[in-house]
Amino acid sequence: MSPNLTYVAVVGVLFAAGVILLLERSLTRVLMGVVLLANGVNVLILAGGRYGGPPIVGTTPDDEMSDPLPQAMILTAIVITLGLTAFLLALAYRSWRLVGHDEVQDDIEDRRIVELAERDAGPEVEDVDDEAEAP
Amino acid sequence: MTALVPLPVVIPLLGAAVTLMLTRFPQAQRLVSLAALTGVLGVSAALLVVVCDDGPQVVAVGAWPVPIGIVLVADQFSALMLVVSAAVTLCVLVYSIGQGMADGGEDTPLSIYHPSYLVLTAGVTTAFLSGDLFNLYVGFEILLVASYVLITVGGTEDRIRAGTTYVVVSLLSSLLFLTAIGLIYAAAGTLNMAQLAGRLDALPDGVRLMLNCVLLLAFGIKAAVFPLSAWLPDSYPTALAPVTAVFAGLLTKVGLYAIIRVETLLFPGGPTRDLLLVLAMLTMLVGILGAIPQTDVKRLLSFTLVSHIGYMLFGIGLSNELGVSSAIFYVVHHITIQTTLFLVVGLMERYGGTTALDRLGGLAALSPLLAVLFFVPAMNLAGIPPFSGFLGKLGLIEAGAAAGGGLRWALVAAALATSLLTLYAVARVWNLAFWRRPVRTAASGPIEGAALPRLMVGATVALLVLGVALTGIAGPLFDLTGDAAADLLERAPYVDAVRGEGVR
Asked: Which PANTHER family has this protein been placed in (chain A) (predicted)?
């Protein structure tokens, strides 16, 4: 069985758009990226199963049935994504209430350590400048 | 005795439902949580005994035949993981109850804490018992969703910032895992792991390698393997002390469990072995070098956590029996020790008012008990004999030396260097926080009237004793992990047990 080209193209577009949005600073855009990626994955799973008529015994001959397992998996994945989208929205809202924006921030400790390193390196650089200017 | 298998999942989920109904009665919530986790510990211990005597236990959920239904499988490896995780979650629960009682319920536990904690436990046990890749994904999601709630509990600015990083990175890894599941289903037509073991072998090498790499990428993020580990030290330290402790102990290890399962059962002897070894070396060295300059004890320990993931990867990458056996032993050791250390840091924060190393000082004189509580697991982590950290590292290094070859010897050297640097990092904490004279600044010194609540100390001591006891039972434990590793590498016991349930 070869995969349907339409599915493959849709998956590619959804993944590309999702990744670009995921790289943004604003949490709302990140959220959109996650939603697009999740839908891309769902289409990917759908493309992995056999397609055909409704998988109900008596309605469709056995060899023309679609594969119901990927559809069941996608349903589960959709429910999980729904819950997580709600949670991310709540996070973005809380962030907006607290700091007035929903941008993902740099880690404070990381910045502190960079500042410490700069402070350690600082005086030496100045000394060199002093010596250069002295004569 | 297959009736025991679903219980570690069912008990905490039921407990979560009951505690959710009891949100107005904190005392009853505590009792239900305690009873549920004690029950999980008891069932897991019984399961371990049964599995050791009778071989892997399999349950087809809802009596649906495989591959339409899902199987839960308990072999020696997963039963051992269940016992250790149940013991650790129980101790951390007692600790957080102690903390909640001491604080009078102001800060913790919020009414949502107990249900989330039990759901987290259910997710961890689901992941350990799952015999189906999609069910493993669901297990991961259950534990992650609970962890999102726990890491942002209270919703302060710091926790929202750290939680955002954590949630987005975890979401991405889950999506990668789901992608891998979709691809594997398309390639093999099943997600039952025992069935996959046979069918994946028949696939072309290129396809197998691709599937293996996508799975490793997803689990590598969860297990905090080096190039994918940057999220961990940024997100864990801001959570509540018991939450950080249980995350540090368990969550990365669930990722490692998945890596071990996938590498031994689904893709044995693949070309990813050397890749894993290189990643193990980088994880060890970069992690520990990150730990050394840290000025905050929690962040320092988070970096050692990342670093020591490398040891377990080392064992998996060797993929000989001694290597995998030592890796499993190291997982057991590391879950216990890392959790203990984070609990002790929680006590230090209560007593000294901060976890910043430049403001702590003189704790050894002020509280000798706290000093002992930190010193023993710290030495255990660094691998000082006779503690279990030494035994685990010894096993790994022996396995590396037995396998031979340039890369493996380089890893042995890296493992020894990491052990030494870990000793340096924890000795630095010891010197600054415990040994030197108290720093006299406005914000330092013990908080007036700060006492260590008995329940919190009791829970920490219990875990510490468990960590030390690992040395005492190291012989039988190594026998057990050896058997588990042999079964994992042989694959047949697992596959045959599931096949007995009607898998074709």
From this structure: ANTIPORTER SUBUNIT MNHC2-RELATED (PTHR34583)
User: How close B295 gets to chain A, by Cα (Å)?
Assistant: 8
B77 residue type, one letter: F
Tell me if A48 and B182 make a contact (CB, 8 A cut-off).
Answer: yes
Summarised one tens digit per residue, pLDDT across range B104-138 is 555 545 678 889 999 999 999 999 999 899 999 99
Closest in A34, A48, A91 to B163, CB measured: A91
Task: Supply the ipTM of this predicted assembly.
Answer: 0.84
Q: Average model confidence (pLDDT) for chain B?
A: 87
- Rounded CA gap, A102 and B164, in Å? 10
Q: In angstroms, what CA-CA distances link B181 with A44, A48, A72, B175, B258? A: 10, 10, 13, 10, 13
Class of domain A5-104: mainly alpha
Q: How far is CA A90 from the centre of its chain?
A: 17
Q: What is the pLDDT of residues B263-306, one digit of tens each?
A: 988 888 778 888 999 999 999 999 999 898 888 888 999 999 99
Which of A68-72, A80-84, B69-73, B432-436 ranks highest by mean pLDDT? A80-84
Give dist(CA B428, CA B432) in Å, integer.
6
Q: Pick from B68, B167, B181: which is nearest to A88 by CB?
A: B167
Whole-prediction pTM value? 0.90
Cα B50 to chain centroid, rounded: 24
| Token couple for B237 | 């330290």
- Identify all chain B residues contacting A49, using CB atoms and an 8 Å cutoff: 185-186
Q: Residue ranges of the domains in chain B? A: 2-440+450-499
> Which amino acid appears at position B135 of this protein?
N
Contact between chains at B175 and A44 (C-beta distance less than 8 A): no
- What is the Cα–Cα distance from B315 to B313, expressed in whole angstroms? 5
Distance CA B243, CA B151 (A): 7
Region A116-134 average pLDDT: 57
Q: What angle do CA B423, B429, B432 make, to 5 degrees?
A: 130
Angle between helices B193-201 and B492-499 (to 10 degrees): 120
